[in-house]
Amino acid sequence: MFKRIKNRILRYLLIAIYFIIILICAIQLNFLWLFGYSPTKKDIVMPSVNISTELYTADSVLIGRYFDEDRNPIPFDSIPKSVTSALIATEDVRFYSHNGVDFFGLGSGIISTLKGDKRGASTITQQLAKNLYRTRYNKAGGLLTRLPVAGLVVTKFKEWMTAYKLEQRYSKNQILEMYLNTVSFSNNAYGIETAAKRYFSKGANQLNQNEAAVLIGMLKGTTLYNPIRNPENAFVRKNTVLSQMYKGGFLKKEEYDNLVKEKIVLNTNSQDLNAGGDSYLRAAVAKWLEKWAEDNNYDIYTDGLKIYTTINSKLQKHAEEAVAKQMLELQQRLNNTWEGQEPWRDLSGKVIPNFLDNLAKKTPYYAFLSKKYANTPDSISYFLNKKKKIEVYNWKDGSRIEKDMSTMDSLKYYAMMLNAGMMSMDPYSGEIKAWVGGINHQYFKYDHVMQAKRQAGSTFKPFVYLAALESGMSPCDKITDKPVTIKIDKGDSVEIWEPKNADWNFSYREMSLRHAMARSINSVTVQLTDMVTPAKVVDAAHRCGITSKLNPVASVGLGPNDVSVFEMVNGYSTMMNHGERVTPLLVSKIEDHDGNVIATFQAERKQVVDKQDAWLMTYMLRGGMEEPGGTSQGLWEWDLFDKENEIGGKTGTSSEYVDGWYMGVTKDLVTGVWVGCDERSIHFKNSHSGEGSRTALPIFGVYMESVYKDKQLGYTQGKFPSPTVEITKSYKCETPRYSDPEPDQSDSTQVEEPVDEGFIGPEEEGAEHPVERNHTEGADSGTSSEGSSSLEEVGSQN
User: Fold this and answer.
1) Which of 457, 448, 456 is nearest to 418 (CA)?
2) Strand-pair partners of 65
3) Buried/exposed code over 386-399 (b: 16+ C-beta within 10 A; e: otherwise)
């Protein structure tokens, strides 16, 4: 075909053109998989960019991000001229003169490289093509790209074609906007807006000339010129950018002379810098939205959504501060309790043999040593006990602290760590207002609000009294506090169970149901359970919102079953909400990146308890403060009772003071608090130091005092809501005050009824168990095991 053309030059030119056309078609079609993926017309029209999703409180405070690449795109008019000028002067001074590929710049770059001055020749548009479509990575690579020279030619050619397509589709300003929103600035900061916040704690539109030069200078090498890691290199590079701006006419001589003398002043203390960091709340929302995202084809890590939670930022802050303040005191108390002793004990108080050794065997470091020193256990022991400098969690102030510790030391240190879970909820709307999953999410990933399930102790007793009311009883009905004998049919034998009160004494007094619940009398609770049947108690608890498997045995009302803080708050909220159960709500709405609402969420509602019985239960919960000897009266220590304020609640402690609970209710909020070690075999020794009224109740007290003092919140003191139905049962029954002191009903008891462990509900499917925390040499962290306390001897305390 080409032989007919007599002019040799023209013939060769046509052959070249023909070859280029064939090459372009082959590359576009990825002929025989030789060239790899090339961006399609759809890609060019709608570039695929991962955008971080933002997590907000109900009052629009940013509290977290979800991202594969932390990016928050902004429009061109929000990018200051200082940034675009620095970019053009440094990366592509002929940006407004070419159509995507600068052949003049390419030629001068080759000449400079041959002279020993290596200089890039890629335009901003080419770099954008590379950033947007990964032209040198992933699926872009074909078979030819595996060949060094051929691969470079093919990828460069694809960049040219993609750059040309971009120039045809977008204006120059749009290209600059896309480039500055996609480029990486190290430290997982993608885009100029995120980078400005990461390094200077301000929006991109607030960057000054010097700061803009620092960020643009990083693009030549985000690690080499990182102002945090390499401040000297960053300073030199910053001045190079300023020099290019001066040469390009973007700066006057006087401006340039002043700017090159300015030091780099970073500001990495903004709260927003940590907003993308992990937290209990962030993890809880992610789990909350798993099914929604799957069902609606969204990816919260890449789709740039705005998720609004029901959390109130001020309530959350007060909750976190209350937990932090009290846990400091409690941790010191526990450490003092076991100073110089081994704290891991069985139910008889004996030291558990090989406790730390068994923990060590669950760590990745032990697996590594076992593989390396398979036949030399002494070597494994040597390295496990070899001291080294490691960073551990400092419980005194929540920071990291460097200590000389062995792996075994670290295991002991973390096993002794107390933890906490706290949730506060509006019982009427179902909105969760505060969520504190633990003391520090960086070191303790296990969420003690939703994931952890622990023995509820006496906080479970109200469900017994609710079942009693539903059976026809009233708060004024009386039962005698006396020894109880329960016969348990074991099929081939009958077992006798005789539960004891907290102080192992019985008053032999008749007492109203309200007084008995307020004092947390075990003998009365067991008698009521026997009267209404354990199955009725389980049914009442499940209707109110307890979802865990409950074993319907005689001791069920004393709280031997494992439940979560989340469930308990829901259960108590049902009583406060006139017997209507509302599904706790953590997310209220979701917007897309453009601000369009794509989903809203509302609590599911169901009337599950008679309104009269529900109101009577709120009246009985107030008994903890109002009845003589009520277990909530430790709350008098805090400023909570102006304006005839009413507070109800229930303390709880499991056997051996392993778990401390407090469930507190006000006219506006229901709040649950749990305190304990993840290792159930480590706990306080006595009621004075370890019962719920002395571990969990103070957290509630500090929290509510700060809530009431924060006038901007609008939570006021006052009485509980009046009943919405006629109350036909007698309830105004004054408890006599005896002249002789009433027996001490401290928050502890020992229940000796055997319980079949098979009925106890498992941990939430998919939950990260505490024992799975990482353990690596030089970076040991805490462990925990959930099975240390046997349920063969079930404990419940007030």
Assistant:
1) 448
2) 54
3) eeeebebbebeeee
Torsion of CA 302, 303, 308, 309, to 10 degrees: -40
Q: What is the largest CA-CA distance in the chain?
A: 128
For residue 348, the one-letter residue type is S
8 A C-beta contact, residue 591 and residue 791: no
Q: Are 733 and 514 a contacting pair, CB within 8 Å?
A: yes
Could you tell me the residue ranges of all domains in the chain? 71-274
- 434 in Cβ contact with 318 (< 8 Å): yes
Helices (H), 34-134: 41-45, 81-91, 103-114, 124-133
Q: Rounded to an integer, what distance in angstroms lies between the CA atom of residue 621 and that of residue 614? A: 11
Report how far residue 280's alpha carbon sits from residue 432's, in angstroms, rounded to the nearest whole number: 14
- 495 touches 749 (CB < 8 A): no
pLDDT in tens, 221-280: 998 999 999 999 999 999 999 999 999 999 999 999 999 999 999 987 554 444 445 789
643 contacts: CB under 8 Å, gap ≥ 6? 716, 717, 718
Distance CA 571, CA 543 (A): 8
Distances (CA, A) of 250 to 102, 121, 173: 21, 21, 17
Query: CB of 560 within 8 A of CB of 525?
Result: no
Taking alpha carbons only, the member of 17, 62, 27, 251 closest to residue 160 is: 27
- Helix or strand run (H / E) with residue 674: strand 670-677
Contact 587, 601 (CB under 8 A): yes
DSSP letter at 382 equals: H
Q: How many residues does the chain have?
A: 798
Task: Tell me whether residue 321 is exposed, middle or buried, using C-beta atoms within 10 angstroms of its C-beta: 0 to 12, 13 to 18, 19 or more.
Answer: middle
Residues linked to residue 107 through DSSP beta bridges, in sequence order: none
For 533-539, the CB contacts below 8 A with 24+ separation are: 536/467, 536/470, 536/471, 537/463, 537/464, 537/467, 539/467
Query: Cα separations (Å) of 630 from 455, 600, 627, 634, 647?
Result: 22, 42, 5, 9, 12
Contact present, 793 and 555 (Cβ < 8 Å)? no
Tokens read off for 188: 């997982």
CB-based contact 598:297 (threshold 8 Å): no
What is the three-class DSSP state of 664? strand
Q: How far is CA 214 from the centre of its chain?
A: 33
Pick from 606, 588, 594: which is nearest to 292 by CA?
Answer: 588
**Can you list the pairs that 588-591 forms with residues at least 24 positions away whose Cβ atoms lie under 8 Å?**
588/58, 588/308, 588/309, 588/310, 588/431, 589/308, 590/289, 590/305, 590/306, 590/307, 590/308, 591/305, 591/306, 591/308
Q: At what angle do helices 461-470 and 611-621 cross, to 10 degrees?
A: 140
Report how far apart, in Å, the C-alpha atoms of 402 and of each of 157, 399, 438, 440 are. 52, 10, 22, 17
Residue 705 CB partners (closer than 8 Å, separation 6+):
638, 639, 640
Structure tokens at 553: 């045995």
Structure tokens at 25: 């078609």
Is the domain spanning 71-274 CATH 1.10.486.10? The answer is no
Give the end-to-end CA distance of the chain in Å, rounded to a whole number. 99
Question: pTM of this prediction?
Answer: 0.78
Predicted local confidence at residue 14, as pLDDT: 66
Residue 673 to residue 701: CA distance in whole angstroms: 11
Structure tokens at 301: 């890590």
702: its two tokens: 């500090």
- What the block records as the tokens of 137 is 């990575």
Low-confidence ranges of the chain (pLDDT < 50): 31-33, 35, 117-119, 135-140, 143, 147, 271-276, 743, 745, 749-797
Q: According to the model, what pLDDT value does residue 161 have?
A: 73
